[in-house]
Amino acid sequence: GGGAAGSAAEDEGPPAPQRVLFPPTFSVSEIKNKQRRHFMFLRWKQQQRKEKLAAKKKRRKEREALGDKAPPKAIPKTIENQRVYDETTVDPNDEEVAFDEATDEFAPYFNRQTVPKILITTSDRPRGRTVRFCEQLSTVIPNSHVYYRRGLALKRIIPQCIARDFTDLLVINEDRKIPNGLVLSHLPDGPTAHFRMSSVLLRKEIKRKGKEPTEHVPEVILNNFTTRLGHSVGRMFASLFPHDPQFIGRQVATFHNQRDYIFFRFHRYIFKSEKKVVIQELGPRFTLKLRSLQKGTFDSKFGEYEWIHKRREMDTSRRKFHL
């Protein structure tokens, strides 16, 4: 009888690998042993991934089987498209907005009455990385001049800038040798914006970067500046660059606003053929977050603020954005 039992066992083949099954009330955090807990968590994540992939394959097969009768694909919910409506969102056809734009501090620039002339300066006695960042920024913004401060107060620099026909002042602040703030002041009458700066990458740190930028005037792209505040900030950035881009240089400076973070990128187009175009990043790159917008030029003591970011009062919803 032993032989028959042996042959039956052989027919069954090797045992199937067991699927990890956790009880419905089981929580990995209950496991006291740290290594065991970590191992079980990884196995659980792997199982979740497999189930997700299987469901995706199943849905794709069902869509293929239905062909043209397949229902339209659902749009995934994101923080961005679930954004809380802001009553200050700008309507391009609004007469009030058109009037404000025709009479605001940037109107002479947009009417081509003034040519941008930018002074880039730093916090007192800057270190190597901030110095290199300022130099690279001056190759991105045409007609910009770098000046290193030696203990001179901003309130004394501003009158000198106005006397020498500078239209904007850019101040790069640093902390522990890393650029961490940007003050942008439009001259002679303001406004002044203060940004927190992060994720700064210099040219040499960017992978697959292009050759040095040329002296052509770049195009400027402003994305997603939809509210009145966002509109003002976008106009501030636009007025840093000459109004007539030289498309022959194929260079583009992009300010992209997403969830109130402003991402700056500097690219060059490369035409591979009549149909195929690729972009090459030139650098530098950085991210800005608006802290405050102040009327007039920089005045930390008596300045009148149009907008200040107050975290406890303003950041009550993850879907509420101000720009």
TrEMBL record:
Its main location: nucleus. It comes from the Eukaryota. It is found in: Nucleus, Nucleolus. Residues 116-299 form the Brix domain. One of its GO terms (biological process) is maturation of 5.8S rRNA. GO terms for molecular function: rRNA primary transcript binding. Residues 1-22, 48-74 are annotated as: Disordered. Residues 62-71 have a biased composition (Basic and acidic residues). Transmembrane segments: none annotated. Keywords: Ribosome biogenesis, rRNA processing. Pfam families: Brix (PF04427). InterPro entries: Brix, IMP4/RPF1. This is Ribosome production factor 1. The gene is Rpf1.
